[in-house]
Design brief:
The complex is a heterodimer of chains A (418) and B (523). Chain A has helices at 22-28, 40-50, 67-71, 73-90, 103-107, 112-122, 143-152, 172-185, 218-226, 239-253, 258-283, 297-306, 326-331, 344-354, 363-371, 380-384, 393-411, and strands spanning 5-9, 32-38, 60-64, 96-101, 128-133, 163-167, 190-193, 208-212, 230-231, 287-290, 311-317, 337-341, 358-361, 375-378. Chain A is α/β, with parallel strands linked by helices. Classes of the chains: A alpha/beta (418), B alpha/beta (523). Chains A and B meet through helix 2, strand 3, helix 3, helix 4 and helix 5 of A and strand 1, helix 2, helix 4, helix 5 and helix 18 of B.
């Protein structure tokens, strides 16, 4: 492991909670509904983070706790029952209903597992119920997906069939690309988790080789291991380097030669390098500060340094699983400063002191930093855009070069007055 | 427990944040978990604020719950005070912290600070955003002025005469994330100043705690948004005798009435009465011949109480529309909205469920919707033009240009914003003349890109799906042909009414004649 500087920080944070991940999870599985059991704050959070007003009737909602629900838990369970009944009557097409715990439901110890169990019996054969927590007292942003996937594992049947299982939500087009490449490599049995339909869960067992597409799935990985799955150790498929090593690791697990991998992906690499050049020109030598939010920060830092030649000032992450991130950390330059956790005020002090060229941060901080003359990139865009894989490397770089390029345009005088 | 897919208002602590963020030299320590920081983006993204809201979130986690969360609160308060040095500190909790009962306000008061501390208790499981904003502004006003209550005499609205200066008023209620507040304030100040009236303090928008302490230097309070300021105005009236205005100056008639009300309260002669009619272009634009086509346009209104009531009055009395639906999500203003609806012979819709609003909108078959951002989306789905008149809002409701809703310029803005989504007069006339020509595209509205190719018009697609009604009534060819000649925006209504009529009369097949029979029956 390279000499990377690890720090921990606690204090006031400026991050989303795990409920936010519903925004991409519900799009991934169009036959599922996500019912948050929480407060008006939860409902307001999801709609604000997602800008959901465009939907006619979204496939997520909040059962908002009211005063009478807090008075007695028995009544709250009954009320939740009623809400679920109404919902299923209204949306008969729902196949899986996620009961999502929130800060208030966790604090009053609403037992969603028991509720889900009861509902499973009642709606047997019609709707499946699973529960997990997306609460902000336990989860940050992308960790919500970790909870949702972990909750689905017990529903997955066992099979000893050999397969490659891609774990973590991907944009559909990226997923298709990956599957095509793996097929070309000679891996024929490839499945994804989460699947595109909540009812089409992959079967898993000791011959399942798990390849993670996202770095924030610690709990899911642990449970997959318990089910006998083999976890392929690899960096994450962001950028050319990460994706190449990711393909190589998968190939190795399936005893496919490196030569074969290079043969198939070299044309992609060459094409991607060409596309990356124009972004690299802008990003090269620019100083980057990543605030914690998505857990993608370490992989992004690796990509932006190794392939776009940016200098890393500080790499924040809300949570660090050193084991899962081992391969990534190995690729980081010497003396990279990683900070786990956050004290947002102290961190912003450091931002101002170091005066970076680009800060990756949440939407709440972006405009205030811009107003101070610091260019920013919102981290939420990273989870909404197709950024994985070799073919997307330039697009990923583009997310970071765009604000700098725009800044250049707006501050330069390019037209002569005639 | 209430199933909510989308909510018009946030929780009450977001209301408190609106007050804190609107003001200067204030800091709000909010006992809350990390996810609650999402609220910052409402200000930095929708309002494009270049500053973070002055809020510190204590960020307690599950592992803190077994330990001492009260210590965490105190640590955060101490750090926030040292770092931000506020002149007044607001302390409160969000929904989750309310359950663990650390009483952060009481803790703060025990920490020995010199500055005033406002302890905000905003019940998250029964109240909402506007209530939270109102309560926060009220508690803040009360905290900063309560010591002056006993010592001061009642403030007479005529005091300015004794003091030998121009009369002074406060403008209360404008806040961030309010609808066009930034520009309303400028417009109202301009109008007052023209009438020889000075503005003492505008609050909460742009005010500091010092300004709140100066509120009693004015003679009268202008209550610009009841949702936010009425509680404070009422407290100032009870304790200092300060009178406040009730008229919301949106629209020409209300602006004139507002000016009259202020003059009456101050006993200031109104010398330019005749001029007032001509201050805005709305009366003439509305009278000009092109506007003939506005007569009887069916309009559906939904929004916060203040803007919905004002919109109904303008629609009916100043533009000659027919109000076919009126409602609000502000339960605090339900009584007033009901009263206005009664005057308009419609049933008021008081709800927080946007799907109910969409249903009502569909049933009312309006030609124009005036609503919030959500109604804009609903109207789009139904293929009906819409103008946004109220919060909740979107980044486009904070326009770069000067764009008030109140006063003379506000009336100009309203005329343009409401009329432009409709077909213009002459154009409508021509379309009506040529609509049977083969070039004519149904639903064509030349300047409206989004509806011109609208094949998703709910009324149209409904019709395609079920040529015959659920009750087994058959539409004959002549009946169907006649139905397509009905303007698309009322076609759904005509179809429903004709079927209703057919059932009533036991008519099994609907012909063109049945359509006319039904039309006569329901008119």
């Amino acid at each position: 492991m390279s000499k990377v500087e690890f720090n921990k920080e606690t204090g006031p944070r400026e991050v989303f909670c795990g409920l936010t991940s519903i925004v991409w999870l519900h799009r991934r599985m169009p036959d599922a509904f996500f019912l948050v059991v929480g407060s008006r704050t939860c409902a307001h959070l999801i709609q604000s983070a997602a800008g959901v007003m465009i939907f006619a009737e979204p496939r997520f909602g909040t059962a908002i706790l009211e005063e009478k629900d807090l008075a007695g838990l028995a009544d709250a369970h009954e009320e939740l029952d009623r809400v679920v009944n109404d919902l299923i009557a209204r949306r008969p097409e729902i196949k899986t209903l996620f009961l999502v715990g929130s800060c208030p439901s966790e604090v009053i110890k609403l037992d969603l597992a028991t509720v889900a169990e009861k509902l499973n019996k009642r709606f047997f054969g019609q709707v499946r119920f699973v529960n997990y927590s997306g609460s902000g007292i336990e989860t940050t942003f992308t960790q919500g997906e970790d909870g949702a996937l972990k909750a689905l594992i017990p529903l997955m049947e066992s099979s000893n069939e050999e397969k490659l299982l891609l774990v973590g939500t991907l944009a559909n087009n990226v997923e298709d690309r990956f599957k095509k490449i793996f097929t070309n490599l000679g891996i024929s049995n490839i499945e994804s988790f989460p699947p595109r339909q909540s009812t089409e869960l992959p079967k898993i067992g000791k011959n399942t080789k798990v390849l993670l597409t996202q770095p924030y799935l610690s709990d899911t990985v642990r449970d997959l291991k318990h089910r006998g799955c083999e976890i392929i150790s690899a960096p994450f498929p962001l950028g050319i380097e990460g994706s190449t090593k990711w393909f190589l690791a998968a190939a190795k697990a399936f005893k496919i030669s490196e030569l074969k991998v290079h043969e198939i992906i070299s044309p992609l690499i060459n094409r991607a390098k060409l596309a990356l050049d124009s972004h690299k020109e802008i990003l090269k030598g620019k100083r980057l500060f990543l605030l914690p939010e998505s857990q993608l920060e370490i992989s992004l830092a690796r990509f932006l340094h190794n392939e776009c030649e940016m200098d890393l000032i500080e790499v924040g992450t809300p949570y660090l699983n050193k084991d899962l991130m081992k391969e990534e950390i190995n690729l980081l330059p010497e003396n990279t400063k990683i900070v786990e956790g956050q004290h947002v005020e102290k961190q912003l002090d450091r931002v101002r002191e170091t005066n970076p060229d680009l800060v990756v941060c949440g939407m709440g901080l972006a405009n205030p930093l811009e107003a101070e003359g610091i260019s920013t990139k919102w981290s939420i865009e990273m989870v909404f855009s197709p950024i994985h894989g070799i073919d997307q490397a330039a697009d990923l770089a583009g997310l970071f070069s765009k604000p700098l390029k725009r800044n250049q345009i707006l501050t330069s005088k390019s037209l002569v007055t005639h | 427990m209430e199933l909510t897919l989308w909510t018009y208002e946030g929780p009450p602590h977001v209301g408190a944040m609106r007050i804190a963020s609107s003001m200067k030299d204030i800091h709000y320590v909010l006992h809350a978990p990390q996810g609650d920081t999402y609220a910052d983006l409402l200000f930095t993204m929708i309002e494009r604020r270049g500053q973070r809201p002055p809020v510190t979130y204590t960020t307690f986690q599950a592992r803190d719950l077994g330990g001492d969360t009260a210590e965490l609160v105190k640590k955060n308060i101490k750090e926030a005070v040292e770092r931000f040095k506020p002149k007044t500190l607001l302390v409160g909790e969000s929904c989750t912290a309310e359950l663990i009962q650390d009483q952060p306000g009481a803790l703060a008061k025990g920490m020995g600070f010199d500055m005033p501390i406002v302890n905000l208790e905003l019940p998250a499981y029964s109240k909402k955003e506007n209530w939270g904003a109102s309560e926060t502004f009220y508690q803040l006003t009360r905290t900063l002025l309560k010591e002056k209550v006993s010592s001061s005499e009642k403030i007479s609205p005529l005091r300015w005469k004794e003091l030998g200066r121009r009369p002074k008023v406060n403008i209360l209620g404008p806040s961030l994330l309010g609808f066009r507040c930034r520009d309303d304030v400028i417009e109202i100040q301009r109008i007052l100043s023209e009438q020889g009236i000075d503005t003492n303090v505008v609050a909460p928008l742009g005010a500091s705690p010092d300004d709140i302490e100066r509120l009693i230097d004015a003679e009268v309070n202008i209550c610009l948004y009841q949702e936010i300021a009425e509680a404070s105005c009422e407290w100032l009236r009870r304790n200092f005798g300060m009178e406040y205005t009730n008229t919301i100056p949106i629209g020409i008639k209300n602006t004139i009435e507002f000016i009259n009300e202020v003059h009456n309260k101050l006993d200031l002669p109104l010398t330019n009465k005749e001029e007032l009619e001509n201050k805005s272009k709305l009366p003439w634009y509305s009278k000009s011949v092109d506007s003939n086509y506005l007569t009887g346009k069916r309009v559906f209104i939904f929004g916060d109480g203040t803007h919905a009531i004002a919109a109904a009055k303008i629609a009916k009395e100043e533009l000659g529309f027919e109000v076919v639906g009126l409602g609000t999500y502000s339960r605090e203003m339900a009584r007033q909205v009901r009263a206005t609806a009664k005057d308009l012979n419609v049933e008021a819709l008081i709800t927080n469920n946007y799907l109910e609003v969409e249903d009502a909108m569909k049933k009312a078959a309006p030609e124009l919707v005036l609503g919030t951002q959500m109604e804009r989306h609903s109207a789009k789905r139904l293929g009906i033009p819409c103008s946004v008149i109220s919060t909740p809002m979107h980044v486009q409701d904070v326009p770069a240009r000067y764009s008030p809703q109140m006063g003379w310029e506000g009336a100009n803005v309203i005329f343009d914003d409401w009329v432009h989504p409709l077909m213009m007069g002459l154009e409508e006339h021509l379309i009506d003349m040529f609509k049977h020509d083969f070039e004519f595209v149904d639903g064509h509205q030349s300047h409206l890109g989004h509806t011109a190719t609208n094949k998703n018009n709910i009324l149209n697609s409904d019709e395609k799906k079920e040529k015959n009604s659920k009750e087994g009534i058959i539409w004959t060819e002549s009946g169907r042909a006649e139905l397509t000649k009905v303007p698309f925006f009322v076609r759904g209504k005509v179809k429903t009414n004709t079927e209703k009529y057919a059932i009533l009369r036991g008519i099994p097949e609907i012909s063109d004649e049945t359509l006319y029979d039904a039309k006569a029956y329901f008119s």
